[in-house]
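tokens incoming
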């Protein structure tokens, strides 16, 4: 389920699905608007990271909902200043997800299992990173507007939110078993 969540999350990921299309979505805007788009997530990373202390599932759910709402706002107002606001809200959700999400695998995996589990999760997430930009292009071709692509990405964010809410079970952190002859790190 963690892998499936990341696949959906990377499908909608700002750096993989939205950034290649950002100049087209915000054509005719001042370049400084891109700094707003990338500046808002800095606050979101700190805020959602602070909020996630033990409630990672709920934090993941809300970050995905924030992403979906931002994408829908951007799709509804494409070509206006509000689309920049929507994309900034979506980026806050995209980046806000990263800290709480990547803290989860080590809660139930240790040692070599943690390394291979994280590699598996990342591999599936990268598939989402491939399909995300393609999805925007396909939806634009199908609907004739980039709004269709943003709606499709919003649907993926909603799917990730539902996976987080209903299917992710985050256990208490697993204590690493001491191996014979192991020396604790200081």
């Amino acid at each position: 389920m963690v892998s499936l969540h990341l696949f959906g999350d990377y499908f909608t990921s700002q750096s993989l699905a939205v950034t290649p299309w950002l100049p087209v979505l915000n054509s005719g805007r001042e370049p400084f608007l891109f700094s707003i788009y990338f500046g808002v997530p800095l606050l979101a990373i700190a805020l959602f990271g602070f909020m996630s202390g033990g409630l990672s599932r709920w934090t993941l759910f809300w970050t995905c909902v924030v992403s979906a709402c931002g994408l829908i706002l951007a799709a509804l107002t494409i070509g206006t200043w509000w689309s920049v606001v929507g994309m900034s809200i979506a980026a806050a959700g995209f980046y806000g997800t990263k800290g709480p999400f990547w803290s989860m695998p080590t809660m139930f995996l240790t040692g070599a299992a943690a390394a291979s589990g994280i590699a598996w999760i990342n591999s599936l997430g990268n598939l989402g990173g491939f399909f995300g930009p393609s999805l925007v292009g396909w939806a634009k071709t199908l609907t004739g507007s980039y709004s269709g692509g943003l709606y499709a990405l919003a649907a993926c964010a909603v799917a990730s939110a539902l996976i987080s809410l209903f299917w992710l079970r985050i256990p208490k952190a697993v204590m690493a078993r001491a191996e014979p002859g192991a020396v604790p790190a200081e």
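note: The CA atoms of residues 69 and 158 lie 9 Å apart.
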